[in-house]
Each structure stands twice: as C-alpha cells, then as structure tokens.
Specification:
Layout lengths: L1 E6 L1 H4 L18 E4 L7 H10 L8 E5 L2 H5 L4 H17 L3 E6 L14 H25 L2 E4 H6 L16 H21 L4
Parallel strand pairs: 1-2, 1-3, 3-4, 4-5
Helix pairs in contact: 2-4
Protein name: Lysophospholipase L1-like esterase
Pfam family, one: Lipase_GDSL_2
InterPro entries: SGNH_hydro (IPR013830), SGNH_hydro_sf (IPR036514)
Amino acid sequence: MKICAAGDSIVNGFGVGRENSFINIKDNNIEILNIGENGYTSLLTLEKIKKLKNISGFNLLFIYVGINDFLSGYSLESVTKNIERIIEFAKRNNLILLISIPLDITEGSQDGWCSSLNYISTKNKLIDYRKYIMEKSFQENFYYIDFYNKFKKLNNYSDLFFDGIHPNRYMHNLMRDYFSEILFNIGYENGLL
C-alpha cells in the first residue's frame, strides 16, 4: 500500500526529527511519502497535494491539519471548506482518504505558541472540528483517525508534549502504533494488504 502523508509539523516530526515521526511505519507492505511541513495549514496542505505529479501512484492520502489553522485565527468554516476541497481531490484521483482528528493542545502551548485567549479559542475549534470530521466521514465515505479521543484521557497527557503542541518521541511512538493499526485495517478492508 502506497501512502502520501500530508499536513503540518506533527506529520513532519518537528522536535523529534522526520525519521521519528509517527508516519514512519516499518513494514514491507506499506510505503509512505511524508510531505508534512512545519507551519502548514489546511490551505497550504491542499495546495501542496495538488502540485504532486505522481499522485496516481498512491492508494491512500493521509491528512493531518487543523491546529495551525486555528492558532492562526482561521475560522472553522474556512478549514472545513479546505477539507471539502481535499475530499474532492481524493475522489477525483481515486484515492482512499484518511483524515486525522488532531491531538488536543495543552496549557504548555501558551509558552511561546499562543496567548491564553487564542489557546481557549483553538481548543474549542478543535472540538468542533472533531465533530465535523466524524460527521463528514459518514456523509462522504472517507476514513478518519481520532488521535484527539484516543490519547486525551491519558493521565500524563500534558507530559507527552515538549511544548504543549508537538508530541515528544514517546507520544509519536504511541501515535505510530495506533496509526499502524488503522492503516492495516484500511489496507485489508480494501484488498491492499
């Protein structure tokens, strides 16, 4: 199964190195191109995937966006419009689509990344974005992976980030295990593994 993974600094592996990103799965049946970029929003991610020359060579498109959009003050509506354009892009290119519901940010993000007001706004938008992705997935028949709900309830959740936004290496490992499980389910369901 060939996967194009697009999105923000969490996909890119900011702080832990691209080679340690949760995207990097060591399996002979899965090949992943990581095109995540630090600071990327949903619009920048859409523009990047549209420029890929070899998109037809992939089976699955993975998208992880939202946090940078909301930290930058973009509305939920502007992000959902970009997601709808990503959904259409995947359909036009016969790609299986897997969209991530991002991790929640922690209070540590207020030290250099956002103000307390922006922190609250971003957290609220992430909750609404999660609801949107789950509903849209049902309507448009794409897959989602819910990192937000999977890890939010961990007792030491705040300790799994080095700056309140970016996961540490241990969290990337937890994410990788969950991501692998979802990918294998999708791969088997679609006859790709």
